[in-house]
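[DERIVE STRUCTURE TOKENS]
===
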Amino acid sequence: MKKVSLFIFDDAVLVAVSAALDMLTNTNRYLQKLGRAPAFDIELVSEKTRDIRLHQPAQFTCNRTLDKATDTDLIIIPSFIGEPEIVRSRHPEAVSWIRKMYLQGTEVVSLCRGSYFLAEAGILEGKPCTSHWQAIDDMKSRYPGLMVQPDIIVTDRDGVYTSGGAFSSIHVILYLIEKFCGRDIAIPVSKYFSLDIGKISQAHFAVFQGQKGHGDEEILRAQHYIEKNYRESISVEEVARQSHMSKRNFIRRFTKATHNTPLEYIQRVRIEAAKKSIETGNSSINEIMYESGYSDIKSFRTVFRKITGLSPMQYRNKYHIAVPVA
């Protein structure tokens, strides 16, 4: 049986805590129905007090404080509400505990933005990891030594597990159930919770927000130019000229500021426009392709799938909002 310590703190997201608890305890119940021993001994742990009231209307009574939780096999860190700075300023004891326990051989799991705790503890350095898609650019900027995988839902390296954003993060719990209990247990658990077992991508959830907090005014103007003219056949050379830079210097500065090459940025702006048209409009895929600045259907489909993980038609079937006709 694995000793599992679920870290509870006042900034924790309630659904992250409750989902992990629900899935692990129901796995134990299912195993017991089969006449097998439970797989997980689950405890709630906190920093300094046993009673933790979340910012949401919920309160948890924890089994132990961190200084007493020294014999656990697996630590789960839920996501949190608020700015990432809270990781550094409000929970240094938890960060130190995570680092110490990992170095002693304990495995560590982050749910959604719980990955900030792992990054602060230094245990994600040089490892593939993921988080909520909105946090990806910030994590790349704060922790340049991380191998951030923006489109992946679950990563697993050297006893460190990270997961994608919001409700997709519970897939890492299902992943661990399969890893520790076997696929024959994970499949019925996935059916009980109506989860797709083996789901690996969160790309189609992401909303491209343009990475504009870099402070480079000339690159910011270039971004605005792209966003205004993406329907035209603009090129990197043209945007570089508009910015009064050589192509080489422009690509270097643009990539440093936005974490995308200019070509990638143009593609992502166009695909974001196409996604919005598919979600709310009734135009054909070909019409949307032209409206988004593409003229070749094969190229459009290739780039669309690369960025979202779905074909344009699959995206329509999944996210199109039918507009009533008067």
Q: What stands out?
A: Residues 14-33 form the longest helix (20 residues). The CA atoms of residues 103 and 123 lie 9 Å apart.
